[in-house]
Write a structure and sequence with these properties.
Elements: E1 2-8, H1 21-26, E2 42-47, E3 50-51, E4 66-67, E5 80-82, H2 93-105, E6 109-111, E7 118-123, E8 126-134, H3 152-162, E9 167-173, H4 184-196, E10 200-204, E11 212-215, E12 218-221, E13 226-228, E14 238-245, E15 252-260, E16 266-269, H5 280-287, H6 293-317, H7 324-342, H8 350-353, H9 361-369
């Protein structure tokens, strides 16, 4: 079985520098300690950090979203890591390449790199092709080392390389953060991907669960949430593990609900313990409600504000955990970001939040003529 999970960070972040996941891992804690991992299963996750000893950052910023390989010797890694996302270039091209080399040396595979947009797996007696790309804007590099914002013709060209595989999986980094549904053009794009020939589309990046749909008999999971991540925001603590079984003639898909605990590590929980707003029965209802873009993006910004408020509250509660220099650096950075926002330079402007899907003329025409699918 292939176990597919969401966003994985093995590092400290912005609001937990010095006491986050990376600090726990450096103390030899295992981020997958609560999971029973059968040796016959393969695991895939989106690696939203950098594993490297090199960084092009200085001072406080050298500590965030990066961990040196020597601190991970005790970790039994996932079998496959997606590396097409908006964090892997954060410490520069040299660090990114160091991470790719480390993943290979650790015995795992990476997918989504420019030189490895797709990988082939032999599993459960079937040949499986796995492809991955990112639809988010890249802020850290002019020349990202991963498959970034491809045109439709590029996706079609890559698909032709894998179309003979028995099952074809797309693991895509897309959408808007913290909101529990995709927007209309994103759904049209997902349908186009299924029409192209992919057997399942699995989305990551929003950090929260979104609903799934079955389109033309095939699954589209718009976001499966976080897996190993420290976010104090409650919706970001709930996710799923997708269990993909290839033993039959058709792909069988089941899932387990996951809760990220106070140790930042995931644990499978019964569906009955999951609040309704984080279960698929509710999220799939949300998926079926059509919204104009103005309403949708108003909700996006509202969720961003709630997430920020949660971060600020957690920062104040954690003040005593920071070193003095890190605490002052965070305050300076906060002032700098707010000043940029007031001058219209914030990174969360509508143009940055809404991905560009480069729709072909036929799809674009259908999008403009109808507000629903």
């Amino acid at each position: 079985m292939l176990k597919v999970v969401g966003d994985v960070s093995l590092t400290d972040g912005f609001f937990d520098t010095g006491f986050g996941i990376g600090s726990s891992v450096r103390k030899a804690q295992n981020p997958f300690v609560h999971l029973r991992r059968n040796s016959s299963d393969l695991w895939l996750g989106n690696l939203e950090c950098v594993i490297a000893s090199h960084s092009n950052k200085k001072g406080f910023y050298r500590k965030q979203f990066i961990i040196a390989p020597q601190h991970l010797g005790h970790v039994r890694h996932l079998n496959i890591y997606g590396v097409a996302n908006n964090h892997v270039m954060l410490h520069g091209s040299k660090a990114y390449q160091e991470m790719l080399d480390y993943i290979d040396l650790s015995g795992s595979l990476c997918v989504g790199a420019n030189q490895r947009k797709s990988v082939f797996l032999e599993h459960q007696g079937r040949q499986i092709a796995l492809s991955s790309f990112s639809q988010r804007k890249e802020r850290f590099s002019k020349y990202p080392g991963y498959w970034y914002n491809p045109e439709y013709k590029e996706i079609e060209a890559e698909y032709r390389k894998i179309e003979d595989a028995r099952f074809k999986i797309l693991y895509v980094h897309w959408g808007n953060e913290y909101v529990n549904k995709p927007y209309n053009d994103q759904r049209r794009f997902a349908h186009w991907l299924i029409d192209l020939g992919f057997d399942i589309v699995i989305g990551v990046h929003p950090h929260v669960l979104q609903g799934y749909e079955v389109y033309n008999g095939k699954y589209i999971f718009y976001s499966i949430g976080n897996f190993v991540f420290n976010m104090p925001y409650e919706p970001a603590c709930h996710s799923v593990i997708l269990n993909l079984d290839f033993s039959g003639d058709c792909l069988s898909v089941k899932y387990d609900y996951v809760k990220i605990g106070k140790d930042f590590f995931p644990k499978i929980i019964p569906e009955g313990d999951v609040p309704r707003q984080y279960r698929f029965d509710y999220l799939n209802e949300r998926l079926g409600t059509d919204e104009e873009n103005e309403i949708y993006y108003s909700n996006v910004f509202s969720m961003i504000k709630k997430h920020r408020k949660s971060n600020y509250s957690e920062f104040l509660r954690s003040t005593f955990k920071f070193s003095l220099s890190d605490y002052l650096s965070i305050l300076r950075d906060f002032v700098k970001r707010r000043a940029a926002e007031e001058n219209g330079l914030n990174e969360e402007s509508p143009d940055e939040i809404k991905p560009v899907f480069n729709m072909p003329a036929k799809v674009r025409s259908e999008s403009q003529s109808s507000s629903s699918i």
